[in-house]
Amino acid sequence: MVRGELSRSIWAAAEGLLSAPRPQCTRTMRYVQRSMRPTTRLISTTRPRSAELMDETLTTSPEPFTAASEINFEDEVEDEEAAKQGKSDQKKLQTLRIVPASPSYFSAKPTFTDDWIHLSALLRSVATLPTVPNSEAPRVAWKTIDQYRIMTNEPVKTQRYHKMMHILKRLNCIHPSLMPEQVRTAMRRYMKDSQPGDVVPAPGVIDEWGRARGVGRRKTSSAVAWIVEGEGEVLVNGKSLSQFFGRLHHRESAVWALKATQRLDKYNIFGLVQGGGSTGQAEALTLAVAKALLVHEPALKPALRRAGCITRDPRKVERKKTGHVKARKMPTWVKR
Amino acid sequence: MPPSTCLWTLTQRSPETAVRFLSKIHPQVVYFSTSQARYANPSPKKKTMTAAPKRGTKTLNTKKGRSAAQDTGKRPAPGDRKQARKRIVLTNDNALAVASLKDMDKADTTSETSQGQVLGIPEATVDALRAVEAFKTTQGWNLFRRPATLMRKETIELAKVMNEAEGQKRTLRRILSGERLSGKSTLLLQALSMAFVREWVVINLPEAQDIVNAHTEYAPLPDSQPTQYTQDTYMANLLGQILKANSSASNPFLAKTQVTANHTLPVALPANASLKQLIEVGIVSPEASWPVFLALWRELTQPGRPPIMLAIDGTAHVMKESDYLNAQVKPIHSFDLAIVRHFIDHLSGAKSLPNGGVVLAATSQSNAPKTPALDFSIEVAEARRVNPNNIPRWNPYKNIDPRVMEAFKDLHSPTAENGAGGVNAMDVIKVGGLSKDEARSIMEYYAESGMLRAKVDDGFVTEKWSLAGMGNIGELERASVRFRI
Hints:
- Chain A: It comes from Bimuria novae-zelandiae CBS 107.79.
- Chain A: GO terms for molecular function: RNA binding; structural constituent of ribosome.
- Chain A: Belongs to the universal ribosomal protein uS9 family.
- Chain A: Residues 315-336 are annotated as: Disordered.
- The complex is a heterodimer of chains A (336) and B (485).
- Among the domains of chain A are: 38-65 and 102-197, no CATH class; 212-306, Ribosomal Protein S5, domain 2.
- Chain A is built from 14 helices and 5 strands.
- Chain A has helices at 5-19, 24-36, 51-59, 73-79, 85-94, 110-126, 145-152, 158-172, 181-188, 241-244, 248-254, 256-260, 278-296, 301-306, and strands spanning 212-218, 221-229, 234-236, 239-240, 267-274.
- In chain A, strands 1-2-5-3-4 form a 5-stranded mixed sheet.
- In chain A, strand 3 and strand 4 (239-240) form a beta hairpin.
- In chain B, a hairpin with a 5-residue loop joins strand 9 and strand 10.
- The N and C termini of chain B lie far apart (103 Å).
- Chains A and B meet through helix 10 and helix 11 of A and helix 19 and helix 20 of B.
């Protein structure tokens, strides 16, 4: 064997072990199988974890794992024969030991075990920090077990995952002002990509004419209302309130957001309504006017919520089903 | 003997011998016949279960003792129901009398200072208004102790019009238009009451529908070209109303004034007859009512006589063909009815009032047939006030009534000055919503009458004003007095 070839091949082997990804074709095959059978039939075929992940979890781990120290081959070789170079290379190859990145490499679910150990250690290290009650902790959408299984590609048992969730929820209860950055980074791994409160609706604006726009819906009606500062004039589809709504009750519904907050004489309303009947149209206007009013005065939100102008009433006509007379009514029973 | 062998023996013989043989066996021979069954008495019909009569069909109910026990309630006498429906109630004893309420007097009807005040209608005027049927059952007079009205912006505008008509002896014509329940008929009533207070002669056609709905007799007017039709009973009744309304104790104009011209009447007049006697002739003999009315009109238009207030409510009904038929069984156009013709001539400006006066036509939104020509004319008149260069155009796909368009041609010109009778002789008064001050004033009156039990402050007034569709007075009354909780 030519000199230097050995070292090159060892290097290549080590490289292959570290970085070579598993062939994609086998993976797709496995996914097909998985989709047909339940997750319990998953075989642990962990792919090598990325360097980034290991950095995140292992290097910063509070209780780092240390493998046995390396064997110093050079000392042994030195004593014997320095002249026999080729033989010593072969011997080196025989004594080569590949150390796994994780101590749980030989367990059934190495990633999960690592996660578990890491989180438990983390909790032990931060257990003394003050906490807030669970109800006051920031709301977090955790990954579901299926999402976690897909991420780790391991058949994690539900119960185990729940236990891990307990730890995570306990970590989340650390007082937000004292939350260590390390915990925050660690928790991010188990959160869903989108969190509640991520999507913030664009704040309403008052345009150059002083108008604020609001949209409301009820039953099958939808309403758009523009509100400007004024003295209580109302136009709905170009008609006055009394012309558009015959019933006094509907008129009161339409301007209820302003009436409940004693602001009927401060604003003018221009509403456009379509669809549905008069009740739906009036109550769609309630919502639209309330939303437009919130643009002018955001502090009114609690008052409007108490007045029932914030929540959209989701009730609609239930569809008729086959075999039923109406949505739920069954035909009368006839004895043959 | 078994029967089969017996029949066997029959078949072996010839038919004649078989018959003889049978007659030997049975002496009476019965031939096949259906007549016996046909002539028999019909068997008594079986009592079968029949289906119950359909809902809504009348059935004879002869069960004993049932009708006697049922419903002993007293039915109203014939005519009672109609009388209850048509009854005008002008007082409410349970309402409080408003101490601060002032009667309308002549000074109020000529100045602008009374705008926004609630003024009571004087007793004599109430009687006169009752006589001309100016009060309507749908109006809320029965809620308060005595009739009172709010002097709103439009009332003052009308008062100014009356000032001008009286001062300059002009004939001013106005059409009252506006939303439903916005107070058009009440504004007409206010105009009539102001006319009574100013001692004008008032002739009011209380409801246009009653003239054209073919409920009164009619006859062609002789020597009229094209043929006009008179309604004698209606005219006699109208003359009665004119007489009753315009002869109060304080203003005995009709009784004092003598007939000056020589009229040709079918009935003879006494010498030196007063106008009152002239009218009474028309009331007593309906066939003479139309000539009497013309004679009265001629007397009223003599120089030195008071101005005339000529008014009609529900104008749209006379802007189409009436329900009367002519000799060719074609509908008669309302303008061919003599009284309507008379009114329209003055409304359109074809004839004028030499002593000055106001011709008023109130429209209705709740009881009005479709009259595109009238609607269009009002629309144009309202648009030209805003911008004379941007007036709407006639929709050619709508059915036009050329006679109506001709009558309202003064409203169609881009400027109001071109019409007959001078500047602004004919115009539309748009009866809109009350201002907040006016709304507050009327609501304070409601509260003082005890019909509104709430604190009348700015917030309350604004709330009701908004809910009433920006101060629609009828809706305001409904929201604050009628539908109170």
